[in-house]
Amino acid sequence: MTESFVSVVTPVYNDEPYLEECIKSVLAQSHQDFEYIICNNHSKDRSGEIAADYAARDSRIRVVSPPEFAPQAKNFNFALREISGRAKYCKMLLSDDWMYPQCLQQMIEVAESNPRIALVSAYRLIEERPDCFGVPVGRSSFAGKEACRWQLLGTAYPFGSQSTVMFRAEVVRNRAPSFFPENRFFMDVDVAFRILGDADFGFVHQVLTFSRYQPDTVTDTASHFNWWPLMHYLMMEQYGRDFLSEAEFKARYDEVTNEMYRGLGEQWLKDKVRLKKKKGFWEFQRKHLGDIGAEIRPALLAKGVVAAGLSLIGSPSTFMKKVRNEMSKA
């Protein structure tokens, strides 16, 4: 149906081992009314050749490239600016991920049930681990603010990654030229908050996508830098006051602040034991805090060091094991 035309977008950079599987999963969709834009970010492997080969065989596939190599968010935004003006929905799929055959169809069905739905998500697999659970069952449509509250309070994490969700295309076009913020560590979650403040959220209670975990990627690097507590702190600083009551905000803000600074305190202690700072750790913290106008607060760091020290006293062997693991990776 023309009214349900979808622009599927895959940004790719050096993903030759996985790109063909990704492309095949798009072509195998039960919903076949789509265009498929593959944005090759000047890959140095055979990714561009693979994309071009499939484009030569299927007229729905179009290969594009930014003028020069672009950082991740800039490349994503370039790719999204290429979507068709007649697209009703926009589905991103990262080049090392893939979709189950019913993905587009089931997401469209939920979106069509409520014209206020601007973003649809679903369960996903990260390798063999299920994710995005916690959304109330028995319903597929929610106020967007309700979904944002789950994320902030930690009761559910419904937004997954760029591969997990589908957007109403009008929302993507209205936020051009930069749909994803280019100075945010958690740009996919950030854009969800921005969209859902005055729109509705849809959810399919099925596993519809597969996300691959790859070493040495942006996500893998961040995972070694206390990223989960940092992300929660950044979300609370930016959006907690908008979606939570004053009492909820204070309780959750204190919780995520203490968690982040305990993690920083543990790293501070590790650095002292190793007599050498973990490469990139503190630069990572300062950069992403600085993106929202925040900084590491010395008094809270000192408190975090004490909290981390007290918790480690009961398990010094665990602490030393962590230190040895870091030293082996240095």
Q: If you had to describe this structure to a student in words, what would you say it looks like?
A:
The protein has 330 residues and is an alpha/beta fold. The protein contains 13 helices and ten strands. Strands 1, 2, 3, 4, 5, 6, 7, 8, 9 and 10 form a ten-stranded mixed beta sheet that branches. Strand 6 (117-126) and strand 7 (129-131) form a beta hairpin. Helix 5 crosses helix 7 (187-196) and helix 9 (227-243) packs antiparallel against helix 10. The longest helix is centred in the C-terminal third of the chain and has 29 residues, at 246-274. The chain starts with 5 loop residues before the first strand and ends with a helix.
- CATH fold category name of the largest domain: Spore Coat Polysaccharide Biosynthesis Protein SpsA, Chain A
- The percent range for helix content is 40-55%
Percent strand: 15-25%
> Radius of gyration, rounded?
21 Å
CATH homologous superfamily designation of the largest domain: Spore Coat Polysaccharide Biosynthesis Protein SpsA, Chain A
Shape: globular
Ends distance = 54 Å
Uncertain regions: pLDDT < 50 for 5+ in a row?
none
Q: Label the structural class.
A: alpha/beta
Write down the domain tally: 2
Largest sheet: 10 strands, mixed
- Give the SSE string: EHEHEHEEHEEEHEHHEHHHHHH
Helix count equals: 13
Architecture of the largest domain, according to CATH? Answer: Alpha-Beta Complex
How do the helices and strands line up, and which of them pair or pack?
Layout: E1 6-12, H1 16-27, E2 34-40, H2 47-57, E3 61-64, H3 72-80, E4 89-92, E5 98-99, H4 103-112, E6 117-126, E7 129-131, E8 141-143, H5 144-153, E9 166-168, H6 169-174, H7 187-196, E10 200-211, H8 218-223, H9 227-243, H10 246-274, H11 281-290, H12 298-313, H13 316-329
Helix pairs in contact: 1-2, 5-7, 5-9, 9-10, 10-12
